[in-house]
Structures are given as structure tokens and as C-alpha cells.
């Protein structure tokens, strides 16, 4: 899956951000833009008040001088008040929209039923850039407001200049090359940011892995500090080199744009001096033009800066909108009206199923034909990298086969409602999540409705712990089910790897009647005896579920003492099925399974 997080189009980005501002805080959005416009008007009026004062002095009219001075003071006071109110509104708007954007991305990222986007390096780059550029993104609306101020200021200045002499209108026009350059330079910076995304992620990863408790141990024991630091420096060197080239290019272009405007500025001042000398303009008008030309000069330097920053923040916003589109489409994937059968009658069938990860040379699974009958317990065994976890994820609908079909009671999984199918699945993985919540909550997440309901979840949670053969974990906890997990929290406790794993298995056992229970090496950190007890306990529950809902249990394990209890064992080798059958059948066959089984049995003797 190589779908591109392509540009969403500048106009769409702007309208999306404005809509977001409107949804986040209407009052602040309106105030921010209105006050910005009014602030620009009062700023432009300074020149007019100054003209009045100079004209009053020239004509000896004290009333005009006083009126001009009073107008100037009042407009300064209004300008300052508008600026203060505008800033308050902008900061409120910034906080509210930033919160909304994060919530929307969090929601969409979690809503995609498959894992393909999460595992694509390209989209990981985009996601991490989105998180890294939080600051830019929060500046989008303030920048747009600033741009609105600049636009109003340019228009008012242009109007006032035309009133003195239409030729002066050329001055703001000479600002255009400078502004056009801003578009080009922003594109250069965006492209360099994209090129630097991979080294930037690598640098972040190196910091994370060094700081994480697991990484910290190995960094010390393997003396990795110097090696990781050198890789960190290399990544930063790459980022600096890419950014440095881009910045040099940008500086050259910006200077060229400014020089064009400065030449026009000098020419317009010469024109006004000439007009006054010829008696075609008053000294007051000359003062007005001097103020306005100064403002235009400030505007050009400021506005190309504002424009560049606006475009840079719009690039971050573009990323937000593209991610929203991408994950939004992924969330729609698998939405279908075809329901999942309430009770499995026939089971799950894989016909000619292959799966190949992006950017890999060989398929992880190839031409798999497999029947998982309703009510059966199926163990999957095979060496590392044989394709066991990939098969489990395909069954869960976390990946879609690149070839072939998976049917559930003869309904193609591609055409049933994927979210509904995933609601009927429960699972525990070796790389399970460690939710640092109360013990009760960590387990009850396996049936999340229970947490939002009024019923006391404890009875169900204890039952799940029992099914997972994990009640012993409770005795080690100071407040039982009410213990906070994670030593980073007040009164929080940390658990051993095996204890965390037992809680993950208990979470999987919360689902009262799953159509499919996936246990992908969830007990690798447990001792073989505990794993054996766990599977025995589950087999008894599965017996009852077999009758009621036709539940299928799929177990991945390297422990043959557990595997042999399954009704059917599937042996994978290099992504294909090497053999399958019951333990007795496979031992009699004396093939790969028998070889692996005997090897392990000999090791225990
Ligand atoms: N996200 C991924 N991207 C690319 N290749 C992957 C990815 N996950 C797994 N693979 C590759 O697919 C193949 C099968 O991997 P899989 O995790 O399914 O094996 P496994 O039998 O579960 O291995 P193990 O016993 O080590 O857990 C391996 O060659 C692996 O390198």
C-alpha cells in the first residue's frame, strides 16, 4: 500500500483551517479577524493625522493642529487596545484549534481498522512531522490573521497614495516580486523539510530508545553510548546539510526581491520631492507620503516574512489535512452493510491467500489454503519469521490479503463490516500494550462498554483473571484491582514482564463469547507450566463457547506441550504450510513437526 499523503491543495487547507477555527471558538475567531482589520485601519490613519498637523502649522490654523494631534493620540490608544484584544482572541483561538486538531488526528489514527498505514515508513514520517511541527500548526490561524492585517494595511495605504498622486500606486506594486519570491522560498523549505524527515525521525528514535528503560539497560551493558551518539550526530549533520542548502537558496531569492522594491522606494521619494518643489503637493501630503512609504517598506519586509511564516504554517496545516484525508479514507475501509454471522457454523477458510509487506522482496505468506472449522482450536507453529503473526493479523482483518480470499461462514471478509468482525474478536499478543491505568481498568478495556456502564466491573474482571490463570498477580498488588500501574504515576507500581503479560491475557478473556480468540505468543514470558495451565483453563471455557457461538481459538506458541492440546496444528515454513493435522497424525507422519517436537522433548529430558 503506497498511497501518498499528497498535498491537499492550498485553498482547501485554508478553508479547512477556517472551518476548524469556527468550530473551535466562534467568538474568538470573529474577534481575532475583525480586530486585526480595525488595527490595520487605525495604523494607516496615522499618516492622515500627521498631514492635518503639518497642514495646520503651514496654514497657521491652530484648530487643525489640535484636531490632528488629538486624532493621532486617540488612534494610537485605539490601536493599542485593538492589538491587545486581538492577541487575547488569537491565543484563545490557537489553543482551542490545536486541541481540536490533535483530537481529530488521534480519533482518525485509532479508527483505521487495518495496520497498513501505521507500518508504512512514508506515513510514519508524515505523522512524526505532524507531531514535531505542533508549533507551526498552532501558528496557522494567528498567521492568517496577521496576513489579513497586512492586506488591509496595503489596500488602505494604496488608496491614500492614489489620492496624492496615482503614480505612487506603483510603489506597492513593486512589492509583488518580493511576495512572489515568498511562495517559491516556502516551497523550497517544505521540500527540504520532507527530505530531512527520515534523518529527523532517526534522531528522535535514538533519543527515545536511549531514554526508555529497556534501551537504557542495553545501552549501558553493550557500551552503545558512543555508537548511538555518533549516529545521532550523523542524522543531525544530514538535517543541517539539507536545511543549510535550502536556507542559502532562500536568502539569495529574498535579497533579489527586496532590491527591486528598494529601488522603487527611492524613486517614489524622489517623485514626492519633485511634486512639492513644483507646488503640486503640500508639505502635509509630503509628510503623509513619507509616513506611508515608510509603512510600505516595513510592510514589504514584514509581509514577505509574514507570508513565508504563513506558508510554512500552511504546509504544516496541509500535512494535517492530508493525514485527515488519508486516515479518514482508511477508517472508511471495511465499512460495509454485510453483517458478521452471530454464530459461526462453518468457520473461517483461507483460499490461495498471499500477503507481501511493502518494500519487501518476498511474500510473508504465499498460497495459503486453510480451514479453521467453527468450534476448533488451532495451533500455529513454525520457526521465527515463518509467517505466524502475519497469518494472525490477516485473520483479525488488520491486513488485507494481497492475493486470495478469507471467508467467514462463506462471506468474504473483504465485503463484511470489518469493525463488526473486529468486535467479535478478542486477542492477546506478545507485544501487547501496557496501559498504565488502574489494574481493574487495564483488564476491563477488553470489554470497553463495561467501563462506561454503571455496573461494577470487578466480578467480570476477576472472572477474566481466573480464565487467564492470572489471579496470583493480584496478591502482589498493594490495592488489588484498584492499584495504579506504572511507577511513573503517584502510588503507581511496576510489574514484571510476565505479570504484564498475564494482565494482557486477562484483557483478552474479558470478551464473553468471541467468535475468534487470537493468542499470538501471549505467554512467551510465562513459564511452561503456567502457559500449560492457562491453555487448559481456556480449553474448558472454549468447550462451552464451541456449542454456543462456534468460537475458534488460534494459538501461536513455540511450546509443544501446549501446542499438542490443540485440535489441529498448522506448521508454517517460509510463508507456506508445510504440514497440518492433529498432534498424533503429525508425529506419525514423522515430518518437520515431529522433528521440532522431538528436539524440544529431548531438551526437557
Ligand atoms: N511490518 C513488516 N514489514 C515488513 N516485513 C515484515 C513486517 N512484519 C513481518 N515482516 C516479515 O514477514 C515475515 C513473517 O513475519 P512474521 O512476524 O509473520 O513471522 P513469525 O512466524 O510470527 O515470526 P516470530 O516467530 O519471530 O514471531 C518475516 O520475514 C518478517 O521479516
UniProtKB/TrEMBL annotation:
Name used for this protein in its record: ABC transporter ATP-binding protein
Transmembrane annotation, as ranges: 27-50, 62-84, 167-185
Keywords: ATP-binding, Membrane, Nucleotide-binding, Transmembrane, Transmembrane helix
Lineage: Bacteria, Bacillati, Actinomycetota, Actinomycetes, Propionibacteriales
Protein's cellular compartments: Cell membrane
Biological source species: Kribbella hippodromi
Record GO terms (molecular function): ATP binding
Membrane-related topology note: Multi-pass membrane protein
Cross-referenced InterPro entries: AAA+_ATPase, ABC1_TM_dom, ABC1_TM_sf, ABC_transporter-like_ATP-bd, ABC_transporter-like_CS, P-loop_NTPase, Type_1_exporter
Domain ABC transmembrane type-1 span(s) in chain numbering: 30-312
Pfam families, sorted: ABC_membrane, ABC_tran
Residue span, ABC transporter domain: 348-599
